[in-house]
Design goal:
By secondary structure, the chain is mostly helical. The protein is built from five helices and no strands. Helix 1 packs across helix 2. The radius of gyration is 17 Å and the shape is flat. The N and C termini lie far apart (52 Å).
């Protein structure tokens, strides 16, 4: 394995792991924002403007759907939770705009 090949692997694997880690954080905070948690609103105000939030929303939309399924839908099916919050990107955008304005 050459040095160039090694650094190529480091770049690719590092990018994938960074996407997964930050996507996890963004997805959890997005779901908390949909639930109206004040901690999520404070986190949003501290770190974002609406334009930056929209960019990350586009980038991490798959993570949001995955975590909504894992944390909302599956517990409903196995009987741990009675209600599932309706997941909508437009609702998330609306709540973010309200929090940031």
């Amino acid at each position: 394995m050459s040095d160039l090949e090694f650094w190529g692997y480091v770049l690719v694997i590092g990018s994938i792991l960074t996407y997964i880690c930050w996507g996890f954080v963004f997805a959890i905070q997005g779901l908390l924002l949909l639930h109206g948690r004040p901690e999520a609103v404070a986190w949003l105000r501290k770190r974002y403007r609406i334009r930056g939030f929209m960019r990350e929303l586009v980038a991490f939309a798959p993570m949001l759907f995955i975590f909504h399924f894992l944390l909302e839908v599956i517990p409903k099916f196995i009987g741990l939770d009675d209600a599932v919050i309706k997941f909508s990107i437009s609702d998330l955008i609306e709540r973010a705009e309200d929090a940031l304005s």
